[in-house]
Amino acid sequence: MTKPLIIAIDGPSGAGKGTVAREVAARLSYRYVDTGAMYRAVAWRAQQLGVPLDDEARVAGVASTAQVAMDAGRITIDGVDVTRAIRTPDVDRAAALVARLPRVREVLVAHQRGMGKEGGVVMEGRDIGTVVFPRADVKIYLDAAPEERARRRASDAAHAVSDQGAAVADVAVALEARDASDRSRTVSPLAAARDALIIDTTQLSIGEVVEKVMTVIREKH
Ligand code: DC
Q: What's the sign of the alpha-carbon dihedral 101, 103, 105, 108?
């Protein structure tokens, strides 16, 4: 493989982005960046500091001053490992609120551009192919039927600690609310880029999705 690519993977929760992006990054020896974890970490830190989540200026202040580090599947903010703490239903809701604030997005998007500008990155989120890297080499948009996304999220090990025993129906309601928030916000709403390859993963195994993505990537080299 020649030049290091920028690979953007977007889509709603439970579409398989994380698992697929991690596997693709591992196969290419690229860096994997989970941008949702950044919104989650900022929301977690703002709550910890007692900053109201609708106070845009102060939450943006948290986003720009906090030290966020992502490495080997762990995420820390201001030195605190929040890898597990950010996967609770409370942070799910808080992150969706924070993600609606334009000034917070501005700060995190700048940070994400910095992390990906040299290429060699698989970046996963909602607006990577549309806003963060509109000229990404490969743009993938993963989607799946809502019931399937809720089922996956309910059995997701990372969320299992707090969602223990969560009924799929309850997860479906919460997930639908967050998706509606992500899709309807005025800044960078969740949407497929015009030039993204849309893959419906409802009936596909992870291996099959990874293969489809790898095929597109090989064509770019
Ligand atoms: O992917 P996730 O569930 O960890 O994302 C957490 C929240 O952040 C979710 O409400 C979507 C939002 N988000 C975003 O607006 N833009 C991104 N690039 C990534 C996540």
A: negative
